[in-house]
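Internal ticket - ligand job 700, DGJ:
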Amino acid sequence: MIALRSAHNSIVFNTINNKLSIFHWGALLNEGELGSDVIAATTRAVSHSHWDQPTTADVMREHSKGFIGHPTLEGHRNGQAWSTHFELVSETHTTNSLQATLVDDHAKLSLVLTYTLTPDGVLTINADLTNSGDTGYVLNQYVHWLPLADQAAQVMDFTGRWSHERHPQRRDISYGLTTREEREGRTSHDYTIAQLAMTKNANFSSGEVWSMSVAFSGNSVHHVEKTQFGDQSIGAGELFLPGEIIIKPGESFTIAPVQASYSACGIDGISQNFHSTLRKRTHHPTNIRPRPLTLNVWEAVYFDHNSEKIKALADVAAEIGVERMVLDDGWFHLRRNDRAGLGDWVVDPTVWPNGFTEIIEYLNTRGIEFGLWFEGEMVQIDSDLYRAHPEWILHEGDRIPALQRNQLVLDITHPGAFDHVLGQVDHVLSSFNISYIKWDHNRILNDAGHLGQAAVHNQTLATYRLFDELKRRHPGLEIESCASGGARIDLGMIEHADRFWTSDNNDALERQTIQRWTSLVIPPEMLGTHIGPTRGHQTGKTTELSFRAINALFGHAGIEWDITETTAHEREILKSWAALYKEKRTLLHSGRSVRIDYPDSHAFLYGVVAHDKSEALFAFMQHLMPSSNFSPKLRFTGLDASSQYRVRLITEVGAPRTLQVGNITWGEGVVLSGAALESVGLQPPTLAPENGILISLIKQ
Ligand code: DGJ
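stdout (structure tokens):
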């Protein structure tokens, strides 16, 4: 047996009879804890009406070995070599990785599988498939699978649509496949971000949880399967369109990786494993610099660009303490509305006669950086680019794909189209002091073909290449990945982008759920969380500023509001909120995310606790009318039980509306032990719906 171990979990492989199988994936098993009798203790007999010999699980789930559930690999060579039988020929391993080579001499395929477990418990599975035959091999599917322990009883995944991303659905694991497919050619608003399997009563802080996510930004599939034998497993992979992947003789194909994790301490354990792992990357944004407070002008001006208005916004932004201002859609050739211009990435002299030099200087002298919006994978019929190269669109046959937001997808797998976008964007970035771009992607890919063959896979890789090349040419460049809000947030894009626009919905109540679940695997400092206007542009609802301010604090904070219209009082709050964000961002962007299972489902209680437990910041957010006259006490976990904490209400975000006479008695500050805060708790005020409070806990 070969075991890979992290601080929180382990995976144990078996390599007998030329097979690679996974014996255990879950709780941490230390050296020697399995014992030599474990195989005898777990071996099954033969089932009635089944194979004469017991079958053992294999990472390659194949009919030829007696596996009759959903397979790992499917493909063929012109109808031949359709059934595979891979055998393990070699393996090498260390304490945190295993690389195995498997070969099928008949199908003429070989596979190099690599399992890598980070010290914080995230497992990445990579695979490279080589065609050693002399005909093309059509790869229909490749799904990475991991076994689930028998006690996994439920599956939780996430669904969504525009402005309503990442909504959980939880159901019992039943026989057969539970599947989530995404076929939008981009990650999708509906992308599950992670598929979770969990024990029956698992919650944020207890129970066992297994997760798996495809680390890729194209089409995807996530499964949980329970077979007639009672075996359960979780699987995920890229979803290929018909004929999309044909591996030429002698060539290899890199399968999109998956990332998986196991937590013995609830859903938050999964988040902690991912957040800690991702934060150790040298290119993780907070390892480069603190995340600047951002103002995006989209909802303030939309397409109505005019330098006087932008300067007026900059003046207020400077007063508030904004550090970066992003000029959104509407600055380039022909782009006065959403019907024209995509594809022509040149500054439009009718709106910006002197380019951006003057406005950037105006901002920079006020201590504000400049960021700019692009949507480089798109083109519009009314654009110089389309007029010159109508063939540079993803399409099939003579059909023009259905339009979405009046736009088509530029086929950047075409070298000419790729060079065009790279060249124009590079030129803009080289001409002005721009260190940040917001990169949008506002349509679904349909009929996404290149010269007659489905091209989502190659288009996705071309986007990654484009981002990487822009960063190579412009060291320090940060890229925000946006796709009509949160339609391209995934563990593949996270290696190429530095921030995600979490949702187009800036209504703080709606954002509560969206942010809670997007940060399941994405560290909050990579999620754009902006204070929207008093009346939300998406929902039309009005929301208290304090509620919006608290909501926006738990991420990469920003503002998306016409702040020239704010009252003096609102500006004062924005100012103190901005100062608070700057004071607390190290904690917010490095601490452990804690979500409490609060007894009243009409409210959320969550926060961030410093890793050394010296400090914490919690939000109590009342979503709907409190269920009782007095809300359940706030019981905080993750603190040091034996230490004393000074607890106080943070007032810099403005006051909430309450439904009680008088104030809470601890607001000015009380001292309580971590144990008392966890087991007794704090009486919150009874808050009106869509109101919240922010609580600081500092170790004495
Ligand atoms: C959709 C994005 O999600 C918005 O934030 C904004 O950038 C618009 N596109 C601009 O067209």
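Auto-summary: Residues 298, 328-329, 373, 440, 442, 482, 484-485, 501, 504 surround DGJ (CB under 6 Å). DSSP finds 13 helices and 37 strands in the chain.
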